[in-house]
Amino acid sequence: xxxxxxxxxxxxxxxxxxxxxxxxxxxxxxxxxxxxxxxxxxxxxxxxxxxxxxxxxxxxxxxxxxxxxxxxxxxxxxxxxxxxxxxxxxxxxxxxxxxxxxxxxxxxxxxxxxxxxxxxxxxxxxxxxxxxxxxxxxxxxxxxxxxxxxxxxxxxxxxxxxxxxxxxxxxxxxxxxxxxxxxxxxxxxxxxxxxxxxxxxxxxxxxxxxxxxxxxxxxxxxxxxxxxxxxxxxxxxxxxxxxxxxxxxxxxxxxxxxxxxxxxxxxxxxxxxxxxxxxxxxxxxxxxxxxxxxxxxxxxxxxxxxxxxxxxxxxxxxxxxxxxxxxxxxxxxxxxxxxxxxxxxxxxx
Length: 349
What we know:
By secondary structure, this protein is an all-alpha fold. The protein contains 13 helices and 2 strands. Helices cover about 70% and strands about 0% of the residues. The chain is globular. About 45% of the residues are buried.
C-alpha cells in the first residue's frame, strides 16, 4: 500500500497538472489564431462546429507533461522515460497532421516509429511468456508474439482515442476515467512511478476537459487524442495487477478501454461493410448512432462516459475474483458488446 508521503506527492502532482494545463489552455486559445493552429468550420464534411476552434489540446498535453516530468525527475525512470520519449513522436506527427492533414500512411508510420522506439527500450507486453498463459511454446516464438501484440495494442489504442474524438469532451473524458482507474489500481501495489505519472496525466485530462467539454473552447486535435491513446496504451503495459487474488486478469485494460475499443471496432467494421474508407472521418460513431435513435448528442457522450465507468469498475472488481469468475464476467461483457454492436450496426447505412 502506498505511503502517506507518496499520497501527498500524488495530490501535489495532480493539482499542479490541473493548474499548469489550465494556464496553458488560456494562453493557447489566445495564440492559436496567430500560429494558424485552428480547426476551420466546413474544412471537412464531418465538421459541424460554427466558429474556428483552436487545435491546441496536444500542445497543452505535451508541454504540461514535459514540465511535470522534468520537475519531478520522472523522465529518468526506466519505464516512464521511454514512454515519454516515444509519445513525443506521436505528438510531433499529430501536430504536423493538425497543420497539414497527413495521409493515413504517414500517420501510421509515425505510430509505428513511436511503438518501435518504446519496444526497443524494453516496454512490451508479456502475455505469451506469462505463467498463467496456457499456450506458451517455451521458445523464442513467445518473445516475437509479445512484440506483435505490443505493436497491435499500441496502434489500436492510439487510433481508438483519436477516432472517438469527434464530440466535445468525449475522448478526453474517457482518457480521464481510464487514467483514474489505473491510478486506483497502482495505489494498491506500490508502483510509485506509475502512480505519479497517472496523477500527472489525470490532472492534464481534468484541465483539458474544462476547455474541451461542450461547448468546446479548444479541440484535442490528432496531436492530443493520439498522444492520449498512446500514453494510456503504454501505461496498460507497465502496470502490475498481480496483487489481487486473480493474477491473470490480462483483460482488465480491455475493460477499462471498453468504449473506445468498441467504437473503433464498430466504425472499422461498418465502414468496410459499407465500402467506405476506414480512415475517412464520418458521423458513424457510437454516439452518432445513439443520437440517431433519439438520444441528444451530449447525452450520448455522457452515456458513453457512464458505460466506461461501469466497465472499468467491473474490470477492477475482477482483480479480486477467482480466475473462473473473472473470465466468465469478461466473456459476458464481450457477448454484451457483440449484441450492442449488431443492434447499432444492423440497418445503418
